Amino acid sequence: MRSAAGKPAFLVGIDLGTTNTVVAYANAADAQASIQLFAIEQLLAPGEVGARPLLPSVRYHPAPGELAAGDLTLPWPQDDVTSAQHPVLGALARQLGAQVPGRLVSSAKSWLSHANVDRQAPILPWGADADVAKVSPVAASASYLAYVRAAWNHRFPQALLENQELVLTIPASFDEGARALTLEAARLAGLPALRLVEEPQAAFYDFLQRRRDTLRDDLANTRRIVVCDVGGGTTDFSLIDVAFDEDGEPQLTRSSVGNHLILGGDNMDLALAHLVETRMAAGQEGGMKLSAARLSQLMERCRAAKELLLSSDAPDKASVTLLGAGSRLIGASRSADITREEVAALVVDGFFPKVELSETAKKSRAGIVEFGLPYAQDAAITRHLASFLHQQQGELPDTLLLNGGVFRADALARRLAETLAHWRGAPLTILHNDNPDVAVARGAVAYALARRGQAPRIGGGSPRSYFLVLGEAGKDNRAVCILPRGSASGEEIRLTERLFALRLGRPVRFHLATSLFEAGAPPTLGEIVDLDAGEYLRLPPLASVLHDKQDASDKRDITVQLATVMTEVGTLEVHCVAAADAGQRWLLEFQLRAGNEEPGDGEAQVVSPRIKEAIEKIERIFGGKAQKVDAKEVRQLRQHLERGLGGRESWDTPLLRQLFDALLQRARGRRRSAEHERVWLNLAGYCLRPGYGDALDPWRIEQLWALFDTGIQHHKDNQVCAEWWTLWRRVAGGLSTQQQLRLLDDFAFNLQADAAQRGSRPVTLVNGSDDDMLRLGASLERIPGAYKAEVGAWLIKRLQKADSEAADTNTLWALARVGARQPFHGSAHEVVDSATVAEWLTMLLALDWKKTEPAAFAATHLARMTGDRSRDIADDLRATILARLKAVGAPPLWQAMVSEVTQLDEAVTRRMLGEALPPGLKLIG
């Protein structure tokens, strides 16, 4: 329903929370209309529908036949945006998830900000069995929004939700990648037009709206407000400064936002689950360690107990029961009691300890991982607040606004307020939040009212500065400011002081960074700054292919400037604008699937001054003009390049990529002879390894992959065949899942085809030896874990038949790579299941590790601790592996890799990859 002028009938705020989704609305035509909560109809029990203001942000994937069709009937047609069959949403989903392990999708919002996994791949429920349907974090988020849309449209069929003025809330600390994925989820849900507002701001807008009649008095003694928003999955801090105009009216400016922290109620539930798990295991032989799915089930039980025991009229204790599975549902159940004092001590003292202002957040060598999520390394929210305030200039906040469901517990609210007052050495003003569960949704509507001039508005513009990383050699942290902090929304800023020469038809990528903390005045537009490590956040690269609007085939060079704007929607947009014609402009989009790009690449790189001579040598061998070169000169191309450029192990990424580009441009020349083809394949793979690390590597991989189907020219030359497979092994880190699966097809053919099949092989299917296939198969980290298990089974058979030490060494190396608990470039959800890895480890334990050192190396990687129960092996097997490593005198790092979450050193990384990475390139994750 819209007015005659086509305006929306309602202003709608949606809080897409980690724990719950809440919707509020107001009549758009009435400036004095109150903000109301939208009661969302949902399943409360099988076959029972009721309306509740909170929609749990979870979905349950039932087993076939688990629920009758009539149990899931809703008042509107069900049309889930994912491919899962008959998912359960609503309160019933949370109940079922607490009863049946491994089928509940939860914390999708936390996954949206986890850049080390493919957030658009079906990975949830994390660690679930293969027969459980899975969805991506984006699709799960979209399903909650789509459910809200269906419920709204059922109640207001004349005012469809997609036609209203919508505001969706996000954590203030969400980077541009997470914001873009949130908008993608809304689009999938049929809500393409909406604005984003940060949750701490929304909570404060709710306060402003509720206290609008007494606001001047309420803020009379306030000069700086800190908003602490601790939700189910994230913790956010924001500072809002208060000044007064000539009429005495408060003027509000948001001056700072904190870093992203995956820390909240989920962490508290997990800590309680660990306590209860230990208590349940007491007295049991061998103890008890729950699987990831069962621990998730226990967390749901502990969440309910926590909320009960921290409530105002809490009982002295509560019983937590974990049901058995299958036919032993009741008989195998376990229970443990936790008291109100225990919960208060664990949650209050564990997450809100009394600390001094000088006690900032602790950082360890490796982050905490549970259920695949990289939780904050320090669980103390008070220390994170101290870190945030340390970065600010001016006085400490004199006023506090708390938001988030955890602060319904008075003990938590009191502790945080007492800590901040202690730091100030003076009493603190507390702004009342009457309902932290719904304040953000109501505040989103108040924000919409403020945009219309019908309520107080918070100023401040962009909360952070944005920088273009220059990436000049030796100056990795030099960057130029393209959007200063405080820039107004909707106002485009052109960086006129820098021009970029770009070629039409070729992809362009820029690396951006955003400031986490800035002291003093923000940098000015165009100012060159040194970004100190730890004080800025690298964003996903911006990319586009620039085509002339009149002639798409135009390949000329053009000069462009960068134009940046913080949109009214709440996202960053960057355009390339032709310097000669401002009407020619191209939008650069964030590349959200890439998780392995090396920070520090920019538009200009300083490389060896002798690169011109090197390219001339490549031109002489592979160029279009026929030149008289003998086979020896072709074979010695690498040595000739090293004479001018230094040993190839010293070639850094910018130099390597310039050499690869020169080789790619002359790819036809590789077919002149077997020597040409061998050398070209060897150098091309070496110069593009590991397939990522430079801004244009995805484009280079795309160009290189175009050569795959044509195969090789000299297919009867065994060395050419071997170099072909070495090339693809070296660049495997840059290949997509589909491309790696295509390589897997050839891998399988070369290993399994009989004589008749080999006789009819297409010429373009390159022959590969068992050793070639061993190295290739071990490098395909993006193929599904089940396929990796098949590759591992082949390796085990090969190991059992091995008749030489070299065969053992190569096979054990490949087994370590295939079964690694922490992949180099693949996603964590694609590892081999821990039960299969346990079988491989049992076989390795039968070997003599003193005589066969690679067996210890392989076992180390198969048993490496990640902290994620879905990937880690059982504790008793871990203890056995660790004892064996100690007995054979294995390096201390190997032992540490098994006993704790740690990072690899350069030597171990080189051994695992089969060769060194380019200098300066580091693997992250």
Question: What value does the Rg take, in angstroms?
Answer: 30 Å
Computed structural class: alpha+beta
Task: State the end-to-end CA separation.
Answer: 49 Å
Give the count of helical stretches.
Answer: 29
In percent, how helical is the residue content?
Answer: 25-40%
Oligomer: single chain
- Could you say which overall geometry the principal axes of the C-alpha atoms support? globular
Average pLDDT level:
84
* Largest sheet features: 6 strands, mixed
Question: What does this molecule look like?
Answer:
By secondary structure, this protein is α+β, with helices and mostly antiparallel strands. Strands 1, 2, 3, 6, 10 and 11 form a 6-stranded mixed β-sheet that branches. The chain has a 6-stranded mixed β-sheet with strand order 20-19-12-13-14-21, sandwiched between helices. Strands 24-30-31-32-29-25 form a 6-stranded antiparallel β-sheet. 36% of the residues lie in helices and 18% in strands. The relative contact order is 0.07. Helix 1 (91-99) crosses helix 8 (292-309), helix 22 (770-778) packs parallel to helix 24 (805-818) and helix 24 packs parallel to helix 26. The model is unreliable at 326-331, 365-369 and 593-606 (pLDDT under 50). It starts with 9 loop residues before the first strand and ends in a 12-residue tail after the last helix. It contains 29 helices and 32 strands.
